[in-house]
Amino acid sequence: MSSKSDREHFEEYRAQTLAKHTIIEKYIYAYFNILKGQGGDNLVYIDGFAGRGTYDGPNGPVSGSPLRALEKIASHPGLAKKVTTIFIEKDKKLYDQLVRSLKDFHSKHPEIREPQWGNGEFSEVMTQQLDSLEKADARIAPAFVFVDPCGVDGVDFNVIARVLKSQAKAEVFLFFNIEGVRRILGLKDKMGPTLAKLLGSEARAKELLARVEACSSPDEREQAIMMFYEDLLRTQTPAKYVVSFRVEKEDRRVTSHYLIHAAQHPLGFAIMKDVMWGVGKTAEGKGGLALEQASSVPMKMLFTPEWESIRQSILAELKSGMKRVSYFAVELVQRSDNRLCSKAYKAALLELEKEGKIVVINKNGVGVASKRPMKNGVMTLADEYYLKLP
Ligand SMILES: C[S@@+](CC[C@H](N)C(=O)[O-])C[C@H]1O[C@@H](n2cnc3c(N)ncnc32)[C@H](O)[C@@H]1O
Predict the structure, then answer these.
(1) Contact criterion met (CB below 8 Å) for 84 and 113
(2) How far is Cα 225 from Cα 105, in angstroms, rounded to an integer?
(3) Ligand 1 contact via 154 beta carbon (within 6 Å)
(4) Atom of ligand 1 nearest to the CA of 175
(5) Is the CB of residue 145 below 6 angstroms from any atom belonging to ligand 1?
(6) Is the CB of 6 under 6 A from ligand 1?
(7) Residue 110 exposure: Cα atoms within 13 Å on the Cβ side
């Protein structure tokens, strides 16, 4: 049986839950449409910590991640036919509610594949599935796997690594409870098995503890934890493209958790950064890889690039000569070490153009492109234009 807080989680629909749901639904719609276009006839969405299906909202029930995902899948005939959905929930009471919601949704949307569900622990259910696929010499279809625990418990690095290794198009989207990780690290030699499971071994848990103990400030400790976990994903799984979205507490300038996306393909990585950037809210007011709920000045974190540094990086790149917009908006954003996205680059480029710090050149490379199409009263900037310093 789950803890009381697992059930209480559904009694309030918070801004951070809405942000998480918005990221998921926007991303899976784009991701599955790309895979479908690449000839994928069988795609899989797995919600490993599915919850009860709905939240209590001020004006009645609000859809949780299972229904949000199904709504997106049902909204496109191509996805409705091709995406299999699987929902896992450990708590029997929440599971029973979930099954009712899923059955109800399917009865109203018979065009989607019938959702599948299981009452159990994510790691155990996934291990059984992967074992039986392996026995049959088969492998999982391209899958988007959502790992959304309330705390740290129940997340097994080795299962996540196995999912990613099992299929080159598998991706994982994970709720990383850094507050819980910090609390466990504070227990030092009494850490117990939870952190070892999250990181994949006891030796890694000890190594992280040593790194954190060598830090001298809370911000440094936070960055050490995130670097460690992101590096584990990049080096111990085939997911070379990892991006983290920081969610601040509602009432304090302290990080509550991160949402981490681990992908094996640069396109998914670039799309996810755009989606996260659009959902993000920072004290700078420019969007970003963070939901800053309490800060009135931005936190200087490695994971949330500052606006001025984006502008400076563009000007530095243009010092070596004229470049296409696509160099920033397509090429750089697909590099695994680049935390910026196309949306951010384009907004910064337009801002620099307005200030006269860069010039936009026609698609044929000759003459200033001063008459470009407008969208919502704003000049657009297609990938094919060129850019140079004045
Ligand atoms: C944050 S809630 C999930 C919310 C849901 N993904 C949503 O956005 O609507 C976490 C859920 O995971 C369940 N849970 C906790 N440990 C689990 C485990 N090891 N395996 C599967 N479910 C688990 C809890 O009972 C709870 O319902």
Answers:
(1) yes
(2) 40
(3) yes
(4) 1
(5) no
(6) yes
(7) 1
Token digits of residue 359 = 């010039």
Reported confidence tier of residue 2, pLDDT bands at 50, 70, 90: very low
Note the pLDDT tens digit of each residue in 180-224: 999 999 999 899 899 999 999 999 999 999 999 999 999 999 999
What's the pLDDT score for residue 299?
61
Give the number of the atom of ligand 1 that is nearest the alpha carbon of residue 48. Answer: 21
Check: CATH 3.40.50.150 for 4-291?
yes
In angstroms, what is the span from residue 88 Cα to ligand 1's centroid? 8
- Please tell me if the CB atom of residue 121 comes closer than 6 angstroms to any atom of ligand 1: yes
Q: Which of 131-140, 177-186, 200-209, 364-373 has the lowest average pLDDT? A: 131-140
156 in ligand 1 pocket by Cβ < 6 Å? Answer: no
CA 144 to centroid of ligand 1, rounded, Å: 16
Average pLDDT estimate for 229-241: 98
Do 117 and 95 form a contact (C-beta atoms < 8 A)? yes
Q: Provide the residue ranges of all domains of the chain, joining segments of one domain with +.
A: 4-291, 307-388
